[in-house]
Structures are given as C-alpha cells and as structure tokens.
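Supplementary Note 3. Input sequence used for the single-chain structure prediction.
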Amino acid sequence: MGQMVRGVVAAGRGAAVSIEEINVPDPGPGEAVVQVQACGVCHTDLHYREGGISDDFPFLLGHEAAGIVESVGDGVSDVQPGDFVVLNWRAVCGSCRACLRGRPWYCFNTHNAKQKMTLADGTELSPALGIGAFAEKTLVAAGQCTKVDPAAKAEVAGLLGCGVMAGLGAAINTGNVGRGDTVAVIGSGGVGTAAVVGARLAGAAKVIAIDIDERKLATARELGATHAINSKDLDHDGVVEAIQDLTGGYGADVVIDAVGRPETWKQAFYGRDLAGTVVLVGVPTPDMRLDMPLLDFFGRGGSLKSSWYGDCLPSRDFPLLIDLHLQGRLPLDRFVSETIALEDVEAAFTKMHHGDVLRSVVLF
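The predicted structure, written as discrete structure tokens, is reproduced below.
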C-alpha cells in the first residue's frame, strides 16, 4: 500500500528543486520506514542536483538525517518502531572480504532498500546516497538505521549522517591523529571544521585551519583551531611555507585536504613532515588530474590516504559521538547555522554555495 508524503525532488540537471508528493512503500524484508525529524543540507545534495554524481534523475534529495523508526519489515531485529536513529549511507553487508577480515568500515557491498519510492504518477525516484531524507518519511535498508540516545536533538544527531562524521573520522579514524601531533586542515567548511574538532578531540597539540574565507577561519578557531592561515593571496609555496613556519620548519604530522582539488592535495603533500600523513576527504571531480615527480613520493615516505565517510562504522561511532556530545565534549550543535522548512532547501543551497552557513538543517 504505502503512504504519500512531501519530499524535495531534483527533476533535471541544474533545475531548481521542487516539493512533490512521494509514495513511500511499506517496508519489505530487511527494510524500515523512518519518520524524518531533521535533515542537513549537504554539498552532496547540490552535486546530485547539478548532475555531478549521476544522471539517474529524478532524485529524492537529502541524506544527513535523524528520525524515528515507524515500521520495519520481516527479518529486522536491530531496530524496532519507536527507536531514535541516525541514517547512514553505508549499511555493511557482514559477508564481503572486507567485513570478513574485520574491516567492515571498508565494506565492498553496502546496500540500500530494494523497493523504490516513487512520484505520484509512478515514476521511480533515485534517493540521494540511498536515503532520500528531504521527505517527511523515507524507506531505507534497516542497516542504514543506527540507534542513538534520544536525548540528543534530531538536528544535531543527523549531522553525523554525513559531513560531520566525514571530517571527524578523517582525523580520528583515517589520519590516526594522536596526542601531541601537529595537524593542518585545508578547507574550513563543514567537513574541514569537523576535522579540526576531531583533531582536538584526539589530543592534537596544534591544529592549523586553512581557508580563503576569514569567516570560516573564525569559526574554525572557535571550534578548536589553534592557528589559522588565510590562503586567499598565497600561492602553493606560500601555503606550504606558512604550514612549515607554524611547525618548526618541518611540516605537520597529518594534513587533511577537505577541499579535494589537485592544488590543495599538493599543498597537503608538501605541507606535511617527512613520513607524515596526507588524508583526502574532499571529493574530487572525475576530470581532475595530478602531475608530480614520482621521486617525491618515494623520497618523502609516509602515508597517502583517502577517507571514505571518515572510515566510520556507524554502529560503533554514532552512539559514541552522541554520548560525547551529551557529555559536553563534542559541540555538534555549533555546526547548525540555521533550521529551515522543507520549502527553503533551494535557498539553503545558495547560502551554502556562498559560504554563509556551516549547515542549514531542515526541521520537520
């Protein structure tokens, strides 16, 4: 049977989004219907709207969400109706070679709901990151629901569903930042600022935020950056030298590229100490290329890593991070710039593009 709800749909490349009636099927085996309480406006949703991820229009946007499980299908035991959950886009399979080796955060067979949500006329929708949470209710695989403490506000908890988890995890999980380390983070948007918070949480002694926007740098300082570099008027060498000047001439132990462009990755590569670590968490576009001397890779040593979703395991990381937030040790609420209505998503994209917000969050 299913039920009709309102949702934000991107009908075509670059077209403004619209509010449409969405049919949400009853959950089948291994699936759950979640009543969405809050969903953050993420750059990835804008990439979907612009056709930068695929051409499988129309898209049901939204993925950074928290809400209440309304119903579950056969075979679901980990969550039940009434549970407060954060949605994730990497429901692990438990049986692929990564999962069987005890590395489920690298799962090669993550999955989503098998049934499709549709428009009123039956047109199948492609849910953003397999979630589609700019809607009053959504259908997901039950493994995409992670139960957390309901004492947390939905607009805060939902941020762990994507951007904040990506940044925190890039520092803590992928970068393995340790006590006393020096860390530089290139890009001070939502993901980069979360990486700053993660580095401080892990015990870094010095955390350097780098961006071209002084407003973003000010926020990064408020959330834990010990130093800031405005790179607006600096070339490649200038950024590298600025990092070295703040690290005794050596470079940082860990440099996190939260932008994902060839020029910022090179800054991260040369801005690290010998045998230091580079973490790429900003998402490049398919056309981007690197041209660098191979000898530099050999001569500098260290680790060059990509961070998928902060290398998180939702069942492990989400409850822990919510607990830290409720203890006052993780200021997730500082990432919420504004709460908005479903009708305001298009305007939120504009604010995000102009760097006016860390996160706009749709509140249902």
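The chain has eleven helices and 18 strands. The chain has a mean pLDDT of 96.
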